[in-house]
Amino acid sequence: MTVQRRRHASIIDVAALAGVSVTTVSHTLSQRRPVSAATRERVLDAIAELGYQPNDLARSMRSQRTNTIALVIPDITNPFYTSVARGLQDAIQADTYFGIVCNTDANPDLERKTVEQLVKRRVDGIVFSGYYQHQEDIRPAVSVGIPVVLLGSHRPKEGYDVVNGADHESGAEATRYLIGRGHRRIGFITAPAGSGAPAVRVDGYRAALHEAGIPAEPDLLLRAPVSGDGGAQGMNALLDLPEPPDAVIATNDVVAIGAIGAAHARGLRIPDDIAVMGFDDIEAARLITPKLTTMANQSHQIGHAAGRLVLQRIAGEGPPDPQEVVFSAQLRRRESA
Amino acid sequence: MTVQRRRHASIIDVAALAGVSVTTVSHTLSQRRPVSAATRERVLDAIAELGYQPNDLARSMRSQRTNTIALVIPDITNPFYTSVARGLQDAIQADTYFGIVCNTDANPDLERKTVEQLVKRRVDGIVFSGYYQHQEDIRPAVSVGIPVVLLGSHRPKEGYDVVNGADHESGAEATRYLIGRGHRRIGFITAPAGSGAPAVRVDGYRAALHEAGIPAEPDLLLRAPVSGDGGAQGMNALLDLPEPPDAVIATNDVVAIGAIGAAHARGLRIPDDIAVMGFDDIEAARLITPKLTTMANQSHQIGHAAGRLVLQRIAGEGPPDPQEVVFSAQLRRRESA
DNA sequence: TTGAAAGCGCTAACAT
DNA sequence: ATGTTAGCGCTTTCAA
Are A254 and A282 in contact (CB under 8 A)? Predict the structure, then answer.
């Protein structure tokens, strides 16, 4: 660190130092019109000397594009979402688009505000994933024509595309698997609010119970915060029931791992005393003891597909109708169930 | 979703619809000058009707502030960094500042480019954490006076503050612990490049060996990618040595877990055949079998402190000298060592 | 090969 | 209580 400067140099400073017009500076940078070798060199020297970095705010004012794609996720500490983030990052051309990640902490109010912020900041595209999301949340973006891709079992609608994880089917498959192993009292720990992937997984669970002629008992459907602690709370509540379940499905692996911890703390053995399943197949699912049986979601591919979709919309390509991409989940049978 | 609009409405559109000047619109929004109740209502109606969202690019052009704080991390899938992100988010006032997370994928080139991007986008502050970072990387930000907080065992210097994790001491403590348990051939899996926290942990390791009169054997210091796979590679390389180590310290828990996996794959028992330690105490450290002995870093507090520091600098408060905040690490003795 | 000037959307003097 | 206008830093006609 040698030089210390107070403020940003502007293109005017560069022009003055190089003894040319701002137009010329602009064009040596953009290469959108020929500049004589001598001039170019003087300009580049001035840029180097001033440590000039073009102001992208001003550029975006003119071009009406920010070259920014935002990913909005409810929980940055959940490996599923960070894997989605990596997939998205791999899809957007890093030399053109700048990817930013915004964490909403599974807070409905923050989800709404974050989208508003992104609209005000004029991002070029939004990939939105929220546990508690309301379609309303993304409306400010959709209504001004910002391409939006929604993650997590929503129907594609006019104004946004959707990438889903076959949540109905995988909720049903998890349930069928447990039924096949002889379980009849199957609990489900889901998210507090009722939309998006968690709700659809519950729908699948209910459908599979119904298929098997098992009545869906309301007590066995438990709402808890989507976190390890929430999973523990949920498991404890289920075990405190007069007739506790003999198997529990959690809305994702983080919750499932919390649930297993709570069961262990009560001295229960898994899967003998109680079987547990999750969704996502995060890395920890393979690391814990017993290893977690789970429905593996293709998180990286989901992020990647979302990135491709949003880029396509930004480019004005793609069909006029909203698109839906679905990634199936796969049962990973391990020790916990 | 009802309304579908082509483009963003501007303050001029609002003014026209409300039949007032843009100044009045601006002031009903900012409340920085009185507006009659009747006028205010007409303006608010127009805003609602147009779905107007002020253009923050334009605002930032005028105010010279973007109200944005960026966190740059090398690996968004590493729980340590996401915990730092949560800590940072808890520190910045969400109603004023917008926090964004940028993942550099532990790619030196991307680290540099990301900082340049952030400078061009005129973020108000940067919290930068990079495994391979060179002081040079943050120079474009420092030289234009953007407050920067560096994470990961750097010395505070003119132009930026620092939040550290007592890496020298914790590297030494981990090593001393293993020595105390009778180990003499202690391997260390570190990051490929040589700066920041990993390097300082290695320094501490060397110091502790020296203290104990154990020669530091170059073969036992292994450089590998900072990832689970890297940990596996490193462990395999160490075990292939003519005289393999009887204990291994990994530069963080993710690497340590990969190393344990590789040892297991070879049929080795942990800690009997080989002891393993990590740094960070991520959640998975407690979940794996055997549980990982590790030096717990206060990730959330580190992020929080970084946030407070950067806010302080943005506000122009704080001492003129660069500051350093250090969080000590704590040994979490578990089964793996 | 180069320049002058308009305009992107907003805020804040400076009017009235 | 409200309006006119300069200017933030850039790109891009239009002109020379």
Answer: yes
